[in-house]
Structures are given as structure tokens and as C-alpha cells.
Design a protein that fits this description.
single chain; mainly beta; Porin; about 60% strand
Length: about 160
């Protein structure tokens, strides 16, 4: 009669070992490649901006630490009427997810104004990415040089999960 109790003990032990442990929460991942438009009369450091192309890949950990990249090309026209694209390459070091469809990404960036001068390093930035049901949404961008209104994405994909 020891056989059923040994079998029962073995089942209990294997069930307890197979049960998931209280591991740390999985990080949130924000990814995307999208393009969109800015409202009329948007400018960045004196350059008229009408659109954005962006790419991001960020891991957001509980507590705000994060690891990833945020890149954007601001599509603009100089005061002389010549195309002038401004490139921002950002290293994301802190981030949060205040809502299921929103990620706020912050860090330091290199900004190339596209005017032939050397890029500026170590510029603080914050990008607010908000997704919608279509897999697009908006991107808001604030840097040490300027604040931009939200750009409405109309091509590509943004994901926060």
C-alpha cells in the first residue's frame, strides 16, 4: 500500500517544481518604423518641418530603466526653400508606460541639423509614442533644442506590448 502514497508524493513534488516561480515582471517592448506629418507651421530650430520618419526599439523595465534606440528624421525646408532634413539618433536610458498604448522614452541624442555643420552630441530628448487601433498613432518629440507638436503617423507600424 506504499505505492499510492509514493506516487502521490512524486506527483505533488513534480507539480510544485513545475509551477512558475515569482519571477520579475516581463519588460514592455516598444518597437516601430513609421512616417507621418506635422501640423502646418511646425518648425525646429528655425527649419520648417512638415514630416517625420522614425524608428525605435526599446525595452522598458519595471522601475523605469530601459535599453534601446529612438531615431527620427525630421523632413524640412530651410529658410532658403531648400530641403533640409534633421537627423536625431537617440540612446534611450529611461522610459515609462503610463498607459497600455503609451511609451515615454528619454535619453541623450546626437542631432545633425542637415546644414553641413558638425552634429551636436549629448542633447537630452523625450519621445512620447502613442499607438492607436490601426497600429499607428502619434509621436511627440521634445529636445534640448526645441519642442514639437505631436506628429500623426500615416504609414508603417508602432507597437507597445
Amino acid at each position: 500500500m506504499k505505492r499510492p502514497s509514493v506516487l502521490f508524493a512524486a506527483l505533488v513534488l513534480s507539480a510544485s517544481l513545475a509551477a512558475p516561480r515569482g519571477a520579475a515582471a516581463d519588460p514592455t517592448i516598444a518597437t516601430g518604423g513609421a512616417g507621418g506629418t506635422y501640423p502646418p507651421a511646425t518648425s525646429f530650430a528655425g527649419v520648417s518641418i512638415n514630416g517625420i520618419q522614425s524608428g525605435l526599439g526599446v525595452e522598458i523595465n519595471l522601475g523605469g530603466s530601459s535599453l534601446g534606440q529612438f531615431c527620427a528624421v525630421l523632413l524640412g525646408v530651410s529658410g532658403l526653400g531648400v530641403e533640409q532634413n534633421i537627423k536625431l539618433e537617440g540612446e534611450v536610458t529611461t522610459a515609462s508606460q503610463p498607459a497600455p498604448n503609451v511609451a515615454i522614452l528619454s535619453g541623450l541624442a546626437t542631432i545633425d541639423m542637415g546644414d553641413g555643420l558638425p552634429p551636436a552630441d549629448g542633447i537630452p530628448f523625450t519621445a512620447t509614442v502613442a499607438t492607436d487601433a490601426s497600429g499607428l498613432g502619434t509621436i511627440g518629440l521634445v529636445t534640448g533644442l526645441a519642442s514639437l507638436p505631436d506628429a500623426r503617423m500615416d504609414v508603417g507600424s508602432l507597437t507597445i506590448r
